[in-house]
């Protein structure tokens, strides 16, 4: 099937030269646009794009000629803005139930750590998940998957981490894989057995780490249930030494590292993540010059999650200083029931503007190409380029790109195309 999209008002995030896998530092201000443009899509990939002027010069005879010679269908976008769909590289989309009671505890003054210490938090979600069968878990997750699709997300990373035993971790990852099969989302999966120490290992954290290394990683890798391995490296959760052992074991099984790093303290998560060439280190509220230097000289994406910083009412990550230090920054929702119970990338974009003082160009790079990089997808996703997957959104009538983070609750999307197919999100 060949489709020709014509009269695009602005085609955003196009690759005009060599292929770009991520943008770092001042390059994050680069945003290639083509005004009054067309895009050709063949089956699931973008085959061509350019200005309407070029297209007209190629074919002087208008739409009928194009239909006969270049496409099976012509879609007139009547001046709309077209951009790549969002790449959300950090979510905990698979979970059971909800934790609004903890939300009220938080409103009454309890901290995230205090809620966790009372058996709330991740352990509460683990109990709920344990009591929920796989089909029901899928049903609840699919609702969230359809929700994020409707917000314009086309690719998503989904973590385990509410199982905390081999059976339930595997159950979560199977559900994530089924989301990929049964929805139009592109999905990458991450094994996060080291999200919290389960109650049965109270006071025996190292034994739980042994179980992760000896019993979970081998099965999960062999059954190809995960692309990445992740650890919550934080005081009260897992130490740098635990992280080192787990990432090392994951590496031996072909699972590249990711780390929940420096969310609540200078935890050493960045250092150990970069040591293992992590594809991303995520959170980074507590980072300084030492971490900046390490990240700048690495292939690791710095993924910021302002949604959870907002929800937990913490200090925001020093995004401006990171970008000014030459670091590549991605933005993700961290959709989860405890610290970020929402999955709208546009809210994250608004927070990035208001709290991180990022420009619209930096933000769009962070939610497209850099998000794709943080999932190992930037060769196929995250920009408008020949040969890349035709994953894009057609915006409602918007006056400028700045409008996107500005009125972040107004409807943005008119059409969503994933893999060259128009999807219905009702
Ligand atoms: O990324 N920090 C660890 N994990 C999640 C929170 C998970 C939860 O509270 O359920 C996060 O914020």
List keywords for this structure.
426 residues; alpha/beta; Urease, subunit C, domain 1; TIM Barrel; 2 domains; 8-stranded parallel beta sheet; 21% strand; globular; binds N-(iminomethyl)-L-glutamic acid
The largest sheet is:
8 strands, mixed
- How does the helix and strand content classify structurally? alpha/beta
Strand content: 15-25%
- Output the CATH class name of the largest domain: Alpha Beta
- Low-confidence sequence ranges: none
Shape: globular
| Unique ligands | N-(iminomethyl)-L-glutamic acid
Number of strands: 16
| Tally of individual helices | 17
Mean pLDDT: 95
CATH level-3 fold name of the largest domain: TIM Barrel
Task: Quickly give the CATH architecture of the largest domain.
Answer: Alpha-Beta Barrel
Rg calc: 22 Å
Quote the distance from N terminus to C terminus: 25 Å
Secondary structure: helix percent? 25-40%
Q: What is the CATH superfamily of the largest domain?
A: Metal-dependent hydrolases
Domain module tally: 2
How would you describe this structure to a colleague?
There is one protein chain. The chain has helices at residues 52-58, 62-69, 100-107, 112-117, 121-130, 134-150, 166-182, 205-222, 240-252, 269-275, 289-296, 306-311, 319-324, 345-356, 360-367, 369-373, 403-406, and strands spanning 2-12, 33-42, 45-51, 73-76, 81-84, 86-88, 153-159, 186-194, 228-233, 256-261, 280-283, 301-304, 329-331, 392-395, 413-418, 421-423. The protein is an alpha/beta fold. It has 2 domains: 2-85 and 381-422, Urease, subunit C, domain 1 (Roll), CATH 2.30.40; 86-373, TIM Barrel (Alpha-Beta Barrel). Strands 1, 2, 3, 4, 5, 14, 15 and 16 form an 8-stranded mixed β-sheet that branches. The protein has an 8-stranded parallel β-sheet with strand order 6-7-8-9-10-11-12-13. α14 (345-356) crosses α15 (360-367). The longest helix has 18 residues, at 205-222. The two termini are 25 Å apart. The model has no long low-confidence stretch (mean pLDDT 95). Bound molecules: N-(iminomethyl)-L-glutamic acid.
